[in-house]
């Protein structure tokens, strides 16, 4: 497979671009690429550009071929509203939901979230998750980077998402996915996934008052890092590009 790299600036129509230090280091030290190797660059604005590496000492650049307008985005506008989870679970969720085609990941602080983030610590973690999304796009072939929003409270999210179709995973009271109407054309669907301990009763009630539909994923209780991904995959199979 040809290695793919996200280029952090808008790519020109042709010619040579100098690779940023981090990108060059990854190409040289991790992937062991060499002068003349074929790569693909994309800048997140859509499409991708075949290129060939040019190495001169410590200077790494790429000569660009004609851009390709190929897109691999889902026809569904799926937004994952993920309650903060501990350890490396959030990394996993961001990575895999990117592979599954989400348009955005919105991290929210829930009452039962083990992970607590605020201030500079929250900013650093969000920056890290954004890089996880970039790496996932490089791997899976997407040419547009999904948004990873700053951490917000559930109340702030509900206020900002008025009028948006919302599905909340609620194992006891929810409908099956097959019983829920598919989204209308160009309608965004926000999927709300609770933390390790699940949503509190008050949180579920607040979401339902805000117009959310309760969704069940069957008789088995799934972990927070599994539930959202299972639902996203099922939506892609029912309504998307699977």
UniProtKB/TrEMBL annotation:
GO terms for molecular function: methyltransferase activity. Signal peptide: none annotated. It catalyses: uridine(1498) in 16S rRNA + S-adenosyl-L-methionine = N(3)-methyluridine(1498) in 16S rRNA + S-adenosyl-L-homocysteine + H(+). It is found in: Cytoplasm. Gene3D superfamilies: 3.40.1280.10, Hypothetical PUA domain-like, domain 1. Keywords: Cytoplasm, Methyltransferase, rRNA processing, S-adenosyl-L-methionine, Transferase. Belongs to the RNA methyltransferase RsmE family. This is Ribosomal RNA small subunit methyltransferase E. It comes from Thauera sedimentorum. The lineage of its organism: Bacteria, Pseudomonadati, Pseudomonadota, Betaproteobacteria, Rhodocyclales.
